[in-house]
Design a protein that fits this description.
Strand order of the largest sheet: 1-4-3-2
Helix content: 10-25%
Structural class: alpha/beta
Largest sheet: 4 strands, mixed
Number of strands: 8
Radius of gyration: 17 Å
Number of helices: 3
Strand content: 35-45%
Order of helices and strands: EHEEEEHEEEH
């Protein structure tokens, strides 16, 4: 199986599109996803995408009540984590946690955490060997007990 898409509920759709385009490199496409007469923008990240719904967009969702700030997602940074930190700073995005070692889909990586305009928690994880070597262990991770 491969990841396909998720939905971002936005209090300000234009601000959300700008953030994900400018800070995370998403390609913004309009008119790709429709519900009745409404057309919703879509953010593309390579082979996967995120649909963007306005919190007051009138969509009846099956799974949940739409709530801005309910996402916790990680994206892979393709180089050293120090470059990701510099990139976030250039866009006035505050790192709220990290760098720390984190288990990811590709093994142990080095991560930093930050928030989007709706307070969604986002993580950039790098699998760069020097970044992983230099990142401290995450004191919040504890071994599972049975």
């Amino acid at each position: 199986m491969d990841f396909d898409h998720f939905v971002i509920v936005a209090s300000d759709v234009e601000m959300t599109l700008q953030f994900y385009r400018d800070v995370l490199g998403a390609e913004v496409r309009d008119a790709e996803w429709r519900a009745g007469e409404s057309v919703f923008p879509v953010l593309h990240f390579g082979r996967w995408k995120a649909n963007v719904h306005a919190v007051d967009g009138g969509i009846e969702l099956v799974a949940h009540v739409p709530t801005p700030g309910s996402i916790d997602a990680a994206l892979v940074w393709p180089g050293p984590l120090v470059d990701a930190i510099r990139h976030l700073a250039e866009h006035d995005v505050e790192v709220i946690y990290g760098p720390v070692k984190q288990p990811g889909a590709q093994g142990v990586g080095a991560s930093v955490y930050f928030r989007d305009p709706d307070e969604n928690l986002l993580e950039l994880i790098s699998y760069d060997s020097l970044s992983v070597r230099d990142a401290p262990d995450d004191p919040m991770l504890r071994p599972a007990t049975h």
